[in-house]
Amino acid sequence: MSLTKRGTAADDVLSALAELRAGDLPTHGGRTWAYVYDSGLAGLDELAHRAAQAVTGLNGLDPTVFPSLLAMENEVVGAAASLLGGGPGTVGTVTSGGTESILLAVKAARDGAGVERPQLVAPVTAHAAFAKAAEYFQVELVPVDVDPVTFRPDPSAVAAAITDRTVLVVASAPSYAHGVIDPVAEIAARAAARNVRCHVDACIGGWVLPFWRRLGVEVPEFDFRVPGVTSISVDLHKYAYAPKGTSVLLHRDAELRRSQFFAFADWPGYSMINATMQSTKSAAPLAAAWAVLRHLGEEGYLGLAERTLDATRALIDGVSAVEGLHVLGPPQASLVAFGAAPGGPDLFVLADELTVRGWYVQPQFALGELPANLHLTVTAASAARIEPFLADLRESVAAAREHGAVSVDPAIVEYLRSLDPTTLTSEEFAGLLAVGGLAPGDGAFVLPARMAEINALLAAAPPRLRERLLVEFFGLLYVP
Questions:
Q1: Can you give the C-alpha Rg of the chain in angstroms?
Q2: Dihedral through CA 476, CA 356, CA 335, CA 288, nearest 10?
Q3: Is 344 helix (H, G, I), strand (E, B) or coil?
Q4: What is the pLDDT of residues 257-271, one digit of tens each?
Q5: Where does residue 155 rank: exposed (0-12), middle (13-18), buried (19+ CB within 10 A)?
Q6: In what order do the strands lie in the sheet with 197-201?
Q7: What's the predicted TM-score (pTM) here?
Q8: CA–CA separation, 335 vs 448, rounded Å?
Q9: Of 418, 429, 424, whose CA–CA distance to 460 is shortest?
């Protein structure tokens, strides 16, 4: 694209946008089981959009210039703190998403500890954002294995991984991959005994688990009610059903948060002070989240949580009843991962069959003893879609069995494992694309309709090589 000389009429621009959007997965209606969170409530999106539009020109850089943004942020943080066991001294920051909240939690812990060669202790099931934070902020990531059946870490193993250089210990409520809650109380106690901060990643569970507890579900304690928990991340664009992207990073007290901030005055411009990774930032996500939280209130969220709970239970029961499949965990939140029993369908083929029938599920690769699986995120809007999905799941399992498993030529696997991700050349990558039927043509790069063979190829690659392949692949996608 290049700028047109005279510009384009507004209606034509919007028509072009609609044409581009035609190829996207649906964000509403309960057919997309990842990436999107749909309340199913009429009018909620319109309210959020109107609130966002009202503050479009505002800049979140300086709260003294736009005090309305400061007031909204304090209200949103206060609501999150109240929900998650915060006390009078609890403070927080609205961020652009869970990853930014996690990045800031790691930065605050690193700078607050002030040790040389800092370390971050996290179960292998902790969100990849912690690995990103470790890379960005030069903190050594110390992974802790989890049980291959329960997918939880042993608190003693976490304790054994803590050293004098550890600045942060991580627990998840729940972990994304399998929807299980780490033993937060035991992990936080081990961290506190070594005077180390403990961050709870409740990006997904933080806004739904407290309401499930009110509905009678036995939810383990995971928030500031647990001694030793020093910070919590909770996303509002997940189960608070606010638009992308809003998250909250909470600290137990202001002293813990202080090292999160960046300030700089040693230049001739304005003295800079930032609470987040961003300086200039849109006010729209904050205003939209504030409006949604105010509109729904506790009763509204309790109703949404109940529908999500009913849908999750029905999905677990339904998937468990399908021959050849089994639910992993079992899950303790609204994330459901299921694997294939011995002799069951090829999961990558099954994902393709569900795609053909209008459903998007998320394939997850094996890691060590942790099995490959298909991942589903359940929302309030999923309740009306459980039975249709299960009917199509049964059909898809039969079709996947008939299709048979995909396999990667052993010679290709041997070749893959011979590649060094640090020295991978463009020619080697092009050869792999050709093997996978993805060699780019003269036009735009287009993914195949079925991904089973590609996923099987990626699954055969060791994790470091898979990372390198994905970097090269995304480099092909992001070309103007």
A1: 23
A2: 70
A3: coil
A4: 999 999 999 999 999
A5: buried
A6: 91-95, 247-251, 231-235, 197-201, 166-172, 119-123, 140-144
A7: 0.95
A8: 27
A9: 418
